[in-house]
Amino acid sequence: MRTKLTLTALVALALCAPIIANLRAQRTAAPSTAPAEATARIVSSAQAVLATLDADGKAKVQFPFEGPQKTRWSNLPSPMFERRGLRMGDLTATQKAAVMNLLAAALSKDGYQKVIEIMRGDEVLRTTGGGRGGRGGPGGGPAFGEAEYYLAFLGTPSTTTPWMLQFGGHHLAINLTLAGSQATMTPSLPAAQPASYTFEGRTVRPLGRENDKAFALVNALDVTQRRQAILPHTVSDLVLGPGQDGRTIQPEGIRASSLSTPQQTMLLDIAREWAGIMNDSFGEPRMAEIRSRLADTWFAWSGPTTNGSAAYFRIQGPTLVIEYAQQGSVDHIHTIYRDPTNDYGAKFARP
Amino acid sequence: MQSRLKTVQSSRRNCAAVVLLAIAAGSTGVAAHRLDECLQAARIAVEPDRLALELDVTPGVAIAESFIPEIDRDRDGTIAAHEQQEFIRRILGSVDLSLDGHRIELSDGTATFPDLAALRTGEGMIRLRTDVAVPTPSAGVHQVAFRNRYRGDVSVYLANALVPDSDRVAITAQHHSAEQRELMIDYEVHAETTTLPWPWIAAAAALALTLFFLRPMPRPSIRASTAGTPRVSPTRAASTIR
User: Fold this and answer.
1) What is the complex's ipTM, to 2 decimals?
2) CB pairs under 8 A between A and B
């Protein structure tokens, strides 16, 4: 009898083991404290911004978490695209400083620097006659410059409930959704024009690292790998840019599993230029997620492979889409960064 | 197959209604600011029983004025419903779509239009969508072919397949023409299968097995089974023991 019972128990365990293992794998790991602390700092900085505003300012910056403001972002300059929120050019020095402190808390050191350089590039565009200074009227021509960047909060800045920080203007759209210890910066759009300029005697290339790392990778491919990675057709613009939420295109190019280990490292290093824009406490888990799905990630290239040429590349995995598209000129670049499974925090942001 | 396709198309034409929406400038459908080109971005969805085509048309600011008369035919500064319908028909008439070599007629669709001011500044995008019911192809390899013949003089093109919603369809290859005016999508259709919840079946089997082995066993019978064995009643047995 006892033998029968033991045998039965062993058989039952063997049959149930896969189920138990699956359930354990699905259980989420206990959250690290670093992201929660980062959220707390970001919320504190957001509240500091709100404290500098009068009632009118607060009404301008605050939007419901769910609503049309969530998808109100673009690479276009104002007023061609009508942005809403707090306009940097309308703020006092104290208010501007509070906004920049918020960005410094929300972004990594490199991410913050990238945003500053994109904004400075737009200022260069303004001062070199790329567009009218100051504000254009509705339907008027483009208005470039650092004053034309807008801040918005969607939902109330909170350490527990979901909310979103939007910051953007010409060639920049940062959409950072936070919920407790979780955060995502997808979809976001870092772009640049001019792609290279001089500031305080040094050459600044806001998207220079992205460009150079990508050219290095495509040139590190062997003949067989190039045949897969380099698309035989011209891709002249972003496929999944603004207005393309919720779409997933069929991957193309070379699968990362066909790359050597050093090449895979190069690919991850390129992805980090986007995934690492947000605070490191969120950026590192994001990179870990991208790394875990690397085998199903694709790299595609279109155009010449000599650095300094106008080219296009795409990195696409189950939770990642990055596109880099030079707009007919090496001096004008648009990029897009998405997670088809988690844009706007779809996986975790339930108000 | 061709006659079935025509039947489906005819039925669809009879049943479909064109829904037209006008969206003012400042919509979320704005994209890159091209100057002297019109960007036409096509996305094709392949499902077992339908094909869907989305086509975004964004004229650049430098060509907008020559483009607008194609939409605002009476030049009154507004895009009336009949003008929208006419433009949709013109676009769809310039698109070739076929399944396994059989042409699919495209005549019905929906579209969103920006206002003319947005078109003039190069920010306006016309988004057109058409859904076509197709007979479910047999399991195996198939091909959809797409070609966009609209305004080749001023346009740049994108064309991509979307990842299918149905797990019965697997896209195996895309063949783009050099300038992406044409796209051929090779795909496989898998036969329908029933997905069994194997983990739960295993758990149920384990439970059944456990219950079987733990079932109460019947008590052994006191009555002797062989003939000739004397039966002894308890009373009589007690009286013989002194």
Assistant:
1) 0.85
2) 118
